[in-house]
Amino acid sequence: MNETKKLVEIGNIVSNWELSADVNALVLECPDIVSVAKPGQFVMIKNEMGSTYLRRPFGVADVDKEQGLLLLIYRKAGKGTQELAQLDDGAPISVEGPLGNGFSFKNEGRTLLIGGGVGIAPIIYTARHLSKELDGPKPVILLGVRNHKELFWSDFVENFAEKLVYTTDDGSYGRKGFAIDAIPDILKEYPDIKHIKVCGPTIMMKGIAELAIKQGIECEVSLEKRMACGFGVCLGCTFEGKSGKRWKVCGDGPVFDAEEVFG
Amino acid sequence: MNLTRLATDFAGIRMATPVMGASGTFGFGVEYSDFLDLDQVGAIISKGLTPLPRAGNEGVRIAETPSGMLNCIGLENPGIDVFLRDILPKVRKEAPNTAFIANFSGSSVEDYGIMAEKLDVDGVDGIEVNISCPNVKEGGIVFGTDPKAAAAVTKEVKTHTSKPVIVKLSPNVTDITVMAKAVEEAGADALALINTLTGMVIDINTWKPLLGNVTGGLSGPAVKPIAVRMVYQVAQAVNIPILGLGGIATAEDAIEFLLAGASTVAVGAENFVHPDAVVRVAEGINAYLEKHNLSHVSELVGKVQIG
């Protein structure tokens, strides 16, 4: 469980810009939440001027603790995110967090970070944490995207990566296929990889989790489920793990051991 | 916040304020301790408890709707025994001064009696009988839409408890006053209304219902005018006190319920959006009383002027 005190903070928009036709980046000033947010945690945000009712969960993409800035990256998929994309600098956003447990870090071996789609967002902070805040080896980063128009992620992660590998659905950049297809070569090149952390679509995480379990590599997956609250009361996001225990994605996760989810 | 204007005795349950956290939206109360001072919460109304643990419904459980939300959680809860053994002691330790009301349902009249008896313990200040969950067969809705069955459940509960008994009514009936009167005659100490309204959302891309349970319960600001109307109608029909809820997001919303005839209110879905809402609403009521030179919140109850 997350033992940090949860807060609601009004975060003014510092910048809100387009990364691709359907993906935006948003920087909010919310120093109190940023000061305690850990890689893999999330926030629930609400545009108080918007027309949607519930908050929406967003993975913490990165933080600047000195300046108190929070980076979020979102796909303009529905009404709420489309309204969010229209907002100018200075607009107030209600931010609740930090929520959830975040990834765990052990001081042994190299980590392979894998992201798919907007699930790549939390990989940024996680990569920076591994390469700059911890002493261990830089992570290898594997990103699965649709096509060559989604290479904007490089700007966020390339400085933190020992190696950055892309797969694209259409082969327009990097290796054609799914992220999982690139893993055997990466493991061959980096036999010191001891951990895999994945955030992306369920189907992608399932395949990678199964591969990691088979190879005996520790694997954490970051889940996403519909939720109304984000702190364990609505019970919209619960599921039964392989152990038979019931978990809340919001409070017990969103990061889980791959064996408990897909084992 | 100075609470003297707000301290309320609701059917024998003493509360710091008349504003509670509604069942199913407030956990067991302690989940909110980061966001508000639990001493300023009128009462914690627990997540619905059942005789055995329930995993809840499969599939998507939450959907955003215009000014509200649908849910079909399906009464996921650890069961009455785990609640009494593990959760209640923790709640009483972390929120020793807040009234605690246990919400529960069963699948037979006998179940309700057994549950009431198990909940007749120290640390529980009152019980809320759920005969109105729209999402599970065992959630009591069969008792909540038939006045005879509702009366039978109420009588059974009353004979098995020393606690004040609040019966929570469903809005999914033709005439809610029929249900209210039946429950009052059967001995209920108070009524809570409304539970959620049954609704449905269809995904036009897949042509399938969005919710795993096909239908769900509608809550949030969208239901407020219906809830206020029902509280008003029931207040005309019964003499027992009413806990009004349904779409309360602000103090202004709560004051409407009080004027309509509720003597207490509960905040529901809004807790998900603004987790300090229960206390914020109480503060707003207090400010309103001060502004209107009223010495106590009870001076608003049922004061709507008609004609």
Could you characterize the architecture of this molecule?
The complex is a heterodimer of chains A (263) and B (307). Chain A has helices spanning 31-34, 79-85, 121-133, 153-157, 179-189, 202-215, 258-262; strands spanning 7-18, 23-29, 42-46, 56-59, 62-64, 69-75, 92-99, 110-116, 140-145, 163-168, 175-176, 193-199, 218-222, 238-240, 246-248, 255-257. Chain A has 2 domains: 7-99, Beta Barrel (Elongation Factor Tu (Ef-tu), domain 3); 110-262, Nucleotide-binding domain of ferredoxin-NADP reductase (FNR) module (Rossmann fold, 3-Layer(aba) Sandwich), CATH 3.40.50. The model of chain A has no long low-confidence stretch (mean pLDDT 95). In chain A, the strands form 3 sheets. Chain A has a 7-stranded antiparallel sheet. In chain A, strands 11-10-9-8-12-13-16 form a 7-stranded mixed sheet, with helices on both faces. In chain A, strands 14-15 form a two-stranded antiparallel ribbon. Chain A is globular, with a radius of gyration of 18 Å. In chain A, a hairpin with a 5-residue loop joins strand 14 (238-240) and strand 15. Helix content of chain A is 22%, strand content 33%. Chain A is built from 7 helices and 16 strands. With 307 residues, chain B is α/β, with parallel strands linked by helices. Chain B has a single domain (8-58, 71-199, 218-300), classed as Aldolase class I (TIM Barrel). Chain B has 9 helices and 16 strands. Chain B has an 8-stranded parallel beta barrel, surrounded by 6 helices. A 4-stranded antiparallel sheet of chain B has the order 5-6-14-11, with no helix packed on it. In chain B, strands 1-2 form a two-stranded antiparallel ribbon. The longest helix of chain B has 15 residues, at 80-94. Chain B is globular and about 55 Å long. The model of chain B has no long low-confidence stretch (mean pLDDT 96). The interface between A and B is medium-sized, with 25 and 32 residues.
